[in-house]
TrEMBL record, chains A, B:
Domain MoaB/Mog: 185-324
Enzyme Commission number, as recorded: 2.10.1.1
Any GO BP annotation: Mo-molybdopterin cofactor biosynthetic process
Protein family: Belongs to the MoeA family.
Record's protein name: Molybdopterin molybdenumtransferase
Any Pfam family matching the protein: MoCF_biosynth
Lineage: Bacteria, Bacillati, Bacillota, Clostridia, Eubacteriales
Length: 405, 405
């Protein structure tokens, strides 16, 4: 009987990090870029604001003209212009004059401050009384105060958020280059599997990893390409894998990853190209019988048929290779009971999380490794390290949250 | 000069919670349901597993037949069947017999345990030596152990995650009913606005809230319907609003929400239908000049033209009405400096967050209220409560994380 040559999770990440998945770039309208990964640095083409703007409705003044103004002794100024939104002032301020400006409106030349309309009184169309003095620069947003021309406003690799779209459009940017979604081939293997929706006999089960992995790819920015269920026959596994490797940037297989007599995934990967199988067996629970290989430049993952294991290994090892990957959300919490562990492998234990005041309580969900139910009941995972024989009640742990869409 | 009759954020949420947005339901393939909101409770049509399954490769036995078995004194059993995956056993166990089963394979009648293949030795095609005793139930997943027939496995209102798809497909469920995306009408108002991508003159600015709000709707599960830029003319605002109310389930306007002479949004809402304007002014910074109204059954939001305010109010008040709304992600952290506040209004202060060991440090980003740059620099908001005059360095605060896609 063959045995797996088990690698640590750290060793696995070294391999994952060496993979270069390059789906290319595409230029899209900014609104369609939301949620995607930027493929270029973006520099501001302008100062923002582009001109000195008023932060309030009021009168643009030279501050020294209203110095000492008060309710009982207002300063009288000549109104040389009443500015409408969307227009630029045509006059510049001379001593003793002012321009009425709306919020966001452009200040005339020589104006350094704006008096809020609440502190003014119109004496005539051309004359206003100012009841309050202002500091130089008061109620003014200076040209370039928010963003400077030439400043890097977004970086290659950033995820584009709705707020980014406000910024881009305010600078007149209408299109950006984003990283194309990665095409992920998905092959389910197993004599016991039938397609979901078809009738099944006793002893058979509907394929759950195929649809689950397609959904995961879709939610996390990839394009799933489903190659159906392949029976546990070497030639069938090999020919389907070959087709998928030609058409996709990453290929996933599920099932057939152990070392039993009908486990053909490792052999199929080896038979198609080099370097072939890089890892067969991970010191990880669930997830031990996982294969990671490479055929030419295409990463190939043999995930276990066990759905808990397959979905965990997808998140740990495949998701980082999809475009819009963002760091995992983690929290620090405290265990509410002991967790035993065998040692010699990294245990991923599903947990429920509960914040009580500012203390986060962590409750492990114990279940047999192929429980599908626990997948929907848990809030996240905690990790029992490889050389630990368990964690004690009250111990501080990092929670890897099950991420929502 | 008119003044706003300002309401507290709590009063605003009472109004928001009274809105009924009903975009209807639609039946979709399970993979297309990922990230969407379930419109029905789902009951398990079967036990899961549907039959007693082996958790390992090995021999299904009656535990009493191998009681006391050891390496030096193995129990000898007759192999009456060697089961292939995807088939059901055709024989039942009689005393002294066993069936070879693969991982996940169905147990024959009368078998209560499985001995791992590692602890067995094939003497002939029909005879195996068992080197280890097992407890009753060992290495067996009992029918219904994971999920019971009739159990509610997902609830109406749940967000569908990839793991949910594994569960649904393993139960043979191929389609589910989800809540349709909400159609959100977006109208930008302002004489100073030009469409992003068009040339603009000094004093004009490109429309940033239109694209920003479209992106936010899109990212968070709605369907944006853009009605373009409307000049600050009562009849234009009214006719465009009327069209949008007829075509969408929610309508957003930006700009023209204050009480200046060219602010027509409130008047337009009042002129079209009842109950009209429900709130005009919120004790919130940024976001004071916000209008919330209702025309027949359609919620209408007049958001400020200030992008920081518009995007914050979208998240606070509009996003909860979109389908796939999940609770906001929050963290508890500690301020690294004082934050002053005027009192009498709820201040939303943009912050950067930094976890140092298990303590979360919160650094406020001070910026003028219409800084677009801060939108992309912050990690989230903290709230200075309405009756507070500020928060002190070291104080414990709740952080509302800027949510990613």
């Amino acid at each position: 009987m063959a045995f797996l040559n088990v690698k640590s999770v750290e060793e696995v990440y070294k391999v994952i990090n060496s993979f270069k998945v390059n789906p290319g770039e595409q230029i899209v309208d900014i609104v369609d870029a939301v949620g995607k990964t930027l493929a270029e640095d973006i520099y501001s083409p302008y100062d923002l604001p582009q001109f000195n703007r008023s932060a309030v409705d009021g009168y643009a003044v030279r501050w020294e003209d209203v110095s000492g103004a008060s309710e009982s002794l207002p300063s009288l100024l000549e109104v040389i212009e009443r500015l409408e939104m969307g227009t630029a002032p045509t006059n510049e301020l001379k001593p003793g004059s002012c321009v009425e400006v709306p919020t966001g409106g452009m200040l005339p030349k020589n104006a350094d401050s704006v008096v809020m309309v609440e502190y003014t009184e119109n004496f005539s169309d051309h004359e206003v009384g100012i009841h309050k003095s202002v500091a130089s620069g008061e109620n003014v947003i200076i040209k370039g105060e928010d963003i400077k021309k030439g400043e890097v406003i977004m970086n290659k690799g950033d995820q584009v958020l709705p707020e980014s779209i406000n910024l881009l459009s305010s600078l007149g940017v209408t299109k950006v280059s984003i990283v194309k979604p990665v095409r992920v081939g998905i092959i389910s293997t197993g004599d016991e599997l039938v397609e979901t929706g078809e009738e099944w006999c006793l002893g058979e089960i509907p394929n759950s990893n195929g649809p689950g992995l397609m959904a995961a790819c879709k939610l996390w920015g990839g394009i799933p390409e489903y190659y159906g269920i392949v029976k546990d026959q070497f030639n069938d596994v090999k020919s389907t894998l070959k087709k998928a490797v030609n058409e996709c940037e990453i290929v996933l297989l599920t099932g057939g990853t152990s070392v039993g007599k009908k486990d053909y995934v490792a052999e199929a990967i080896e038979s198609i190209g080099t370097p072939g199988v890089l890892i067969h067996g991970i010191a990880l629970k669930p997830g031990k019988p996982t294969i990671i290989g490479q055929i030419d430049n295409t990463p190939v993952f043999g995930l276990s048929g066990n759905p808990v294991s397959a979905m965990l290994c997808f998140k740990l090892f495949v998701r980082p290779l999809l475009n819009n990957y963002t760091e995992e959300k983690t929290l620090i919490g405290y265990l509410n009971q002991n967790i035993p562990s065998a040692g010699g492998r990294q245990d991923y234990v599903p947990v429920k999380v509960n914040q009580v005041k500012d203390k986060i309580e962590v409750k492990p969900l114990f279940a047999k490794s192929n429980s599908i139910g626990v997948l929907t009941k848990m809030d996240g995972y905690i990790i029992v390290p490889i050389h630990s024989e368990g964690l004690a009640k009250g111990e501080k742990v990092k929670i890897y949250l099950k991420e929502r869409g």
